[in-house]
Amino acid sequence: MNGVAEIESALRQLTRQDKWQIARWLLDELDENGQGQSDGRVPAAPSQPPDYAARRRRIFGEKVLPNMVLSAREEERW
């Protein structure tokens, strides 16, 4: 087998169990050779959403800010 297309066609002819065995073997080989991560970075852990309330307190202190949406709705005519 010379090309990727030949390898793909050969893999498509295998059973699902055989495909999984080849995939596990390939991953083990890549891990042994240190090629498991292509760029060498560790995947980032899922991050927490930003704390907007803490950011607002850091910027404005303990001021109570008006809800601009409610203020705009009060001014609109229905």
**Beta strand %:** under 5%
Amino- and carboxy-terminal Cα gap? 74 Å
Mean pLDDT: 81
* Helix-strand makeup class: mainly alpha
List the total number of helices: 4
Fraction of residues in helix? 55-70%
Shape: elongated
Q: Outline the low-pLDDT stretches.
A: none
Strand runs, count: 0
Characterize the main sheet.
none
Which value, in Å, is the CA radius of gyration? 28 Å
Order of helices and strands: HHHH
What does this molecule look like?
This protein is elongated. It has 4 helices and no strands. The mean pLDDT is 81. It is mainly alpha-helical and 78 residues long. Helices cover 55% and strands 0% of the residues.
Per-chain topology:
Elements: H1 4-12, H2 16-32, H3 52-60, H4 68-75
Label this structure with key terms:
78 residues; mainly alpha; 4 helices; 0% strand; elongated
Brief account:
The chain has about 80 residues and is mostly helical. About 55% of the residues lie in helices and about 0% in strands. The protein is elongated, with a radius of gyration of 28 Å.
